[in-house]
């Protein structure tokens, strides 16, 4: 497998971990990280407005990025396998030089004819 596949694999692991963290921070009932900063969606704390919206958008972005990375890694893997199969087929189809036929053998010890 190529280095490009391993690069995609590493990015997939990192994005999956980040997606898990973002989903775990969210609370399905409206709590989570956004409620711990005062609960108000319009409050501003540390320059971040509507933390819940940020977490929702980051979930969508990370999930889309994960899907794209998986498809890219799959296409790299398929391309490598088909090129490897072509190489195998090409090496099997190499024409070997035709073997020279063996010279016809003649029987030097012929049986004498009866009349001779």
UniProtKB/TrEMBL annotation:
Protein's name in the database: Protein-export membrane protein SecG
InterPro entries, sorted: SecG
Location of this chain's protein in the cell: Cell membrane
Keyword Membrane: yes
Transmembrane segments: 5-25, 60-78
Membrane topology annotation: Multi-pass membrane protein
Keyword annotations: Cell membrane, Membrane, Protein transport, Translocation, Transmembrane, Transmembrane helix, Transport
Major location (coarse): membrane
Function of the protein: Involved in protein export. Participates in an early event of protein translocation.
Ranges of compositional bias, category Low complexity: 96-116
Region of interest: Disordered: 89-116
Pfam families in the record: SecG
Annotated family: Belongs to the SecG family.
């Amino acid at each position: 497998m190529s280095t490009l596949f391993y690069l995609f694999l590493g990015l997939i692991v990192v994005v999956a971990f980040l997606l898990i963290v973002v989903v775990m921070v969210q609370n399905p009932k409206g709590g989570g990280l956004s409620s711990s900063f005062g609960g108000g969606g319009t409050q501003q704390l540390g320059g971040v407005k509507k933390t819940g919206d940020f977490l929702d958008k980051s979930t969508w972005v990370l999930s889309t990025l994960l899907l794209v990375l998986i498809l890219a890694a799959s296409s790299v893997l398929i391309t490598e396998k088909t090129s490897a199969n072509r190489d195998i087929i090409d090496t099997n189809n190499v024409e070997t030089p035709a073997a020279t036929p063996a010279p016809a053998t003649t029987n030097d010890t012929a049986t004498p004819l009866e009349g001779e």
